Amino acid sequence: MINLEKRINRDIVVGWGTFVGVLLLGYLVEIFRGNRTVGYAVVFMLLNCATLLFCLWQYKKNPEATILRYYQITGFLIMYVFCLSTANTHQVYTYILPILFLLILYHDPALIIRVAVTTLVINLIAIGKWFLVDGVTVEDTWDIEIQTGILILCFIACWMAARIYSEVHDQNSRSIEKLDEKTKQIQRMTFQTIETIANTIDAKDEYTKGHSRRVSDYSAEIAREMGMTDEEVERIRYIALLHDIGKIGVPDAVLNKPGRLNEAEYELMKKHTTIGGEILKDVGMMPELDVGAKYHHERYDGKGYPNGLKGDEIPLVARIICMADSYDAMTSNRIYRKHLNHLIVVEEIRRCRGTQFDPEVTDAFLKFLDRLDVSGMVNQEPEELDGANRLLNRVMEDQTRQLAESSQKDQLTKVYNRSAGERFMTVSMRDNKGFLFYLNIDEMRRINREQGIRMGDFYLLQIVDLLQCMHPDIIVSRFGGDEFLCFIPGDTDQESIRAQMNQLLDGVRFIAADTGGKLTASVGISVHDDLKQTFGEAFAEADKALYYMKQAGKDSFYFYQQVADMEEDLSRQELSNLVEAIRAKDNFSDSMVLGQKDFSRMYDFIRDVVSDRRKKVELVMFTVSVGEHAEITVEQRDRALDLADKAIMAVVRDEDAVCTYSSTQRIVVFVDEDEAHVKEIADEIEKRFYQMYGQHDRKEVITLEYRVASVKED
């Protein structure tokens, strides 16, 4: 309605100015013919032009002002009075006709009545002057009667037209208002739907929660700063909300990985732009909806992806979203780093102006930041909604919250799942010292088989209760069917940790006491007293400590030590366990820690040789180890194992037996062989391995070590 009022005022001012200009030309012609004096024409033009200029000035100040119509009409009436009082004809009524046509555009019958009354009063005064001053008689009033009758008829016709126009206009206005309200409702619901989709995307990662909404707000502010219309600003807001929709197609393991991505993972992540573009390309609800998703990682210098577009080749909406997305990424916490200081972010934006970011977009955003209170960024609350939309909004928020929770929690135990646990522990370990421990329930497979899976689930829930009671800030994550990884911030004293672990394991044992069963757990512990240590490093330590504990006898806990010392102890302990099992004539089973299943036949052979033939058996366990700080690929490790096998087979005799004990261990069996000779053979195998591997003088990367044990029935 405001735009309509402005347009009507503009058209009437232009029409009035045109009418005054036509009158000026007419007076100039009359002056040329000698019918008018120059003084008369000058006074006429000064009087009317002054009124016109005044109205033009008011129009510039406020073109939507309703009062402007009264200024225009007053100026026109002044001109009419001047002409009526100075004309040498009684047909001056013709001057009023043009304004009657303009008055209809106002569709205001009351205004027409006021003008009609004013005009008739002016004409009555003029008629009185003609009779009293000019000496007009009744016989000479024909022109006056015609003028008065025509004026009355014209005003009546104008009033009727204005009434009809007003009714039609009001009806159209009501229809337009209803249509606008429906459109706004649809827009609100569309916006809420888009926002729900955006929240669903953000819910895949706790540390990007609200990212799409913030990028949407920043993009809208940039567009507004660049002078775009309200409609364009809202369109960009919607497009920006869906800029990350392509992350639906990125594996969670990549999307939520703690730490930085490797090259292959980064390539997978980059595909979210093309995936998003494909998802949105056929949605016709608004133009360029797919552009934001597809091109928001393009750079102004052409070094972005997916297409390497440069400068103005990149759609403007994508350049705006790129700026907003980068700003939010820098000012938000990420799992691998804290948010950056605001001043540092602003300096980085200035540095990247013209390379990563469009200069015009950058300047607009910096102007916005200059007047923005950083403590309360543009994260405004949604506009007030009606009852139905508030209900819809609550339903959507509940769905989003439930989705976020289900994507982070284990279904049975309600603690964090593996990926969510990694993320939260990574962030906590970045800021806090403490200790990470890896708990494995012993014999869980046997428990499920003998007591049933329901009882196994009961034990899991009881253990979770024990873990959550250990510390108010403990982070508990279910890492496997019978494994839990936990981080407790703050405490790094080993004596205190020992007390907590003893209490925990006592509680685990007590769980099954009422049922007459047996429940134990093994725990590996990594003390996190160096904030430079990453989650991956701490987890590797806890994992190795747990493995050692499982081999050493279970139902206890073990602190991580230096890798070399641990592996040396582990190999010795494993070999000792094997010898004791043979001497005790234990049967091979999955519950025994005897390595891989294909060792069972060799185990039976060794046991028979020792017990039946009463012969001495020498066991040599070869272990391939990776240095503490070495970084090798799976292929390099497999090559080392293959070379170890070749070295063993090249040296041992046909009567000696060789088998695989674990993924990195081999056992060679010697029957009735001298121990000193066995060690010579083992040394030769070790020597051949290093010759083939090519690192005889640098064993810090891969090492091949052996342990020798004798088995003989007492």
Present the secondary structure layout.
Elements: H1 2-33, H2 38-61, H3 68-86, H4 97-104, H5 109-132, H6 142-202, H7 211-225, H8 230-241, H9 252-255, H10 263-270, H11 272-280, H12 289-295, H13 316-331, H14 342-351, H15 359-370, H16 387-408, H17 418-431, E1 434-441, H18 444-451, H19 453-468, E2 475-480, E3 483-489, H20 494-511, E4 521-528, H21 535-552, E5 557-559, H22 563-583, H23 599-612, E6 617-626, H24 634-651, E7 657-662, E8 665-671, H25 675-693, E9 702-711
Parallel strand pairs: 4-5
Antiparallel strand pairs: 1-3, 1-4, 2-3, 6-8, 6-9, 7-8
Helix pairs in contact: 1-2, 1-3, 2-3, 3-5, 4-6, 5-6, 6-16, 7-8, 7-13, 7-15, 11-12, 12-13, 18-19, 19-20, 21-22, 24-25
What does the main sheet amount to?
5 strands, mixed
Shape: rod-shaped
Number of domains: 4
Find the count of extended strands (DSSP E, 2+ residues): 9
CATH superfamily of the largest domain: Hypothetical protein af1432
Please give the radius of gyration in angstroms: 45 Å
Percentage of β-strand residues: 5-15%
SS class: alpha+beta
